[in-house]
Design a protein that fits this description.
Elements: E1 3-8, H1 15-31, E2 38-42, H2 49-52, E3 57-62, E4 65-79, E5 85-91, E6 96-102, E7 109-113, H3 126-130, H4 133-141
Parallel strand pairs: 1-3
Antiparallel strand pairs: 1-7, 2-5, 3-4, 4-5, 4-6
């Protein structure tokens, strides 16, 4: 059973905003003729790394809602230029929308077990997956989804 990481997506307004940021970075690397790998840098290295690498994902909380995930391809601890231990979570650059639910603010990241992880929207039916994200949020706030 895979273990996942839950993290706030600070600065993003929507899943489309996150996807746009990923694409901008990919194009920048392409223009600079650099290989592109998407990663998220954290200060702490997950202690349960082996469980995460067994099929885990980084679940993003956007505007207070657990909204999307990206599969974690690798976890690479390193020391930065200030001699501080950090970690790259190397991500598959595909953002997968999930069944949204509210999440209270927190610092850092949290582990998320497979049984507590929301299903992908593609598993919920085509109608929900194609519905605009803002409409989904409004319907969830009203208790209709």
């Amino acid at each position: 059973m895979a273990l996942h990481i839950l993290k706030l997506c600070v600065g993003c307004e929507s899943i489309a905003d996150l996807e746009s940021w990923i694409e901008e970075n990919r194009l920048l690397h392409q223009r600079l003729k650099r290989p592109y790998r998407q990663f998220h840098t954290t200060r702490m290295t997950p202690k349960r790394m082996d469980e995460i690498l067994g099929g885990g994902s980084l679940y993003w909380v956007i505007k207070g809602f657990l909204s999307a995930r990206q599969r974690i391809e690798a976890i690479e601890p390193f020391t930065d230029t200030d001699c501080i231990q950090r970690c790259h979570l190397v991500l598959e650059p595909v953002v997968i929308p999930v069944r949204s639910r509210p999440v209270r603010p927190f610092q850092g990241w949290r582990y998320l077990t497979e049984k507590d992880a929301p299903p992908d929207l593609s598993q919920q039916g085509a109608d929900l997956a194609e519905m605009p994200e803002s409409l989904q949020r409004e319907l969830r706030a009203l208790g209709l989804l």
